[in-house]
Design a protein that fits this description.
The protein has 3 helices and 4 strands. The protein is α+β, with helices and mostly antiparallel strands. The protein has a single domain (8-108), classed as 2-Layer Sandwich (Alpha-Beta Plaits). A 4-stranded antiparallel beta sheet has the order 2-3-1-4. A hairpin with a 5-residue loop joins strand 2 (61-66) and strand 3 (72-79). It is globular. The N and C termini lie close together (7 Å).
Length: 115
């Protein structure tokens, strides 16, 4: 990953592929979240965890985690565009059952470091 936020293969339109970009995604707890139990005890936790692990393994998710003291999680995502972000996260079992909702997707220009 170059310090400009683009991976080496995505510095141009290679073979018809659009360049990947980095998006910051805020997801919020949905109406079916049970505040009385821990995250790992929520309905369909295993399915959600397996889904997120798979997205991370393929490089779509770079960083993921809950924001302490809030009802939000923050994700750093590699995607071609915002539509891809929404489409991929809509496949999450926790999106289907109302546990999580995508609250915001913002394009991020990384200036220093890498993800």
């Amino acid at each position: 990953m170059h310090c400009d936020g683009h991976s080496e293969w995505s510095t141009g339109n290679i073979g018809g592929m659009m360049p990947q970009q980095i998006f910051l995604v805020t997801r919020s707890r949905g109406p079916h979240w049970n505040d009385a139990v821990a995250m790992e005890q929520q309905e369909k936790w295993s399915e959600h965890a397996a889904f997120m692990d798979a997205l991370h393994a393929e490089g779509f998710l770079a960083l993921v985690g809950p924001v302490e003291g809030t009802r939000y999680a923050l994700l750093a995502v590699h995607a071609q565009d915002e539509d891809e972000v929404h489409r991929r996260l809509a496949e999450d079992p926790w999106s289907h059952n109302g546990m999580l909702q995508t609250a915001e997707v913002r394009l991020w220009t990384l200036r220093l470091g890498s993800v």
